[in-house]
Amino acid sequence: MKILTNYIDGELLPTDNHLDVFNPAEGTVYAKAPRSGEHEVNCAVEAATRAFVKWSRLSASERGEYLLRIAQKIEEHSEALAMAETTDNGKPLWLSKAVDIPRAAANFRFFATAIQHFASESHSSETVTNYTLRRPIGVVGCISPWNLPLYLFTWKIAPALAAGNCVVAKPSEITPVTAFMLSEICCEVGLPKGVLNIVHGYGGEVGACMTAHPKIPVISFTGGTKTGAQIAQTAAPLFKKISLELGGKNPNVIFGDCNFERMINETVRSSFANQGQICLCGSRIFVEESIYDKFLEHFIAKTRQLKIGDPLKPETKQGAVVSHEHMQKVLSYFDIAKEEGGKIVCGGKAFQGEGRCEGGWFIEPTIITDLGPHCRTNQQEIFGPVVTVTPFTSDEEALTWANCTPYGLSATVWTENLTRAHRFARDLQAGIVWINCWLVRDLRTPFGGVKQSGVGREGGWEALRFFTQTKNVSIYQ
Ligand code: NAD
């Protein structure tokens, strides 16, 4: 059994209390992670506070050197990290290899170099020169979810460190293994002690302590909207700076004039990639009536071809969902959808794995039709391999329905009509809009949601601005 440790003040520290870590493809416990509490959070904050004095005074390129070494080590250990991510999360191994681990390395590489181009502004007049300093803030708290474990964990840590802060970070207790391996990498590259601290444990324990800690003035959080609200409630009276990347219920609007073949292939991906457990998956598909029947026929046929099962097999397109609890939640929506008058035209039940995966948590990719845009199935985030398909008759109707949830993370539009594409890009209530593509990412672009999908933006300069505080200096000549 693999026993994980915390990483505090440069040391891999064991704890007495542990929590179980499951392999979702088998439904078995295969590792134990520290169940930390206030004591461990306090030790981490003290270590980070001490480390901040020196770390924040290193030059951007000196800090960048450390981050580049971490990126390189992630690449060197990529096979082991990908295997760990798949074992921990249930996602297909090819996906961990192609996306999760390379992106974790890219996060460090990107911010290691970006920080060296992060310039301050100056504004001069006849008598006064103003320049704006962007200073590191201190100890920042980073809290991340289970769906893209190392990818999202490093997406916060890398810019926070590049900007000169020290970090106390908490990965999801459901998928903690690659975060632990990152702490081993930090030891390997000789990251100065206390600069990054990784404390494992439950959200309501470690996460809540971090959020309430008076010496953590910044919290960067990715996770559910409900948790985000709790964090905001604790952080607001403490005047903390917060960034919240929350849930979504993203629309995928498909017009009759689209490039059908490209659209259908990408729509299968945007619906079911990572078992639909990507905050950016398009879970509400709106299709122009003229191509509705054709769309449904092809979409169902392609979805049925997705091979479900052992995430280690290269032909597997759908691995396990992350936990038994999550599987139950997703399955419960099939009953809700039926009660609401929905028709399940593909999938709609758990999938029985074979061999070592007999006890695993698998769900058939599921397509539901005949639901109105305002029902629970179409309003609440399910976060699994489930989409609804609804026909529309006009641009106005499609836009109204696309915008009719409390969420606003991302949206996808398929059309060859340039004017319509621009109009939808302008009017969709979303932080990210993809036209004729999905999940095309450029790390320089702002990333985040509107409405209940979040507050603030990650990525590029936005992240470096978030992790620094500005100070304007005026000099009279
Ligand atoms: P979650 O909110 O349950 O947990 C996220 C993290 O917060 C975990 O590390 C958890 O331990 C911690 N946490 C839980 N309660 C806490 C508390 N009271 N105080 C502080 N920390 C606490 O979310 P999840 O189930 O791990 O992830 C799925 C959710 O994340 C979905 O809603 C998904 O849309 C969202 N998500 C959003 C983005 C984005 O960029 N907007 C990206 C990925 C996932």
TrEMBL record:
<keyword id="KW-0520">NAD</keyword>
<dbReference type="InterPro" id="IPR015590">
    <property type="entry name" value="Aldehyde_DH_dom"/>
</dbReference>
<dbReference type="Pfam" id="PF00171">
    <property type="entry name" value="Aldedh"/>
</dbReference>
<dbReference type="InterPro" id="IPR016162">
    <property type="entry name" value="Ald_DH_N"/>
</dbReference>
<feature type="active site">
    <location>
        <position position="245"/>
    </location>
</feature>
<dbReference type="GO" id="GO:0004030">
    <property type="term" value="F:aldehyde dehydrogenase [NAD(P)+] activity"/>
</dbReference>
<comment type="similarity">
    <text>Belongs to the aldehyde dehydrogenase family.</text>
</comment>
<dbReference type="InterPro" id="IPR016161">
    <property type="entry name" value="Ald_DH/histidinol_DH"/>
</dbReference>
<keyword id="KW-0560">Oxidoreductase</keyword>
<feature type="domain" description="Aldehyde dehydrogenase">
    <location>
        <begin position="17"/>
        <end position="473"/>
    </location>
</feature>
<dbReference type="InterPro" id="IPR016163">
    <property type="entry name" value="Ald_DH_C"/>
</dbReference>
<dbReference type="InterPro" id="IPR016160">
    <property type="entry name" value="Ald_DH_CS_CYS"/>
</dbReference>
<dbReference type="InterPro" id="IPR029510">
    <property type="entry name" value="Ald_DH_CS_GLU"/>
</dbReference>
<protein>
    <submittedName>
        <fullName>2-hydroxymuconic semialdehyde dehydrogenase</fullName>
    </submittedName>
</protein>
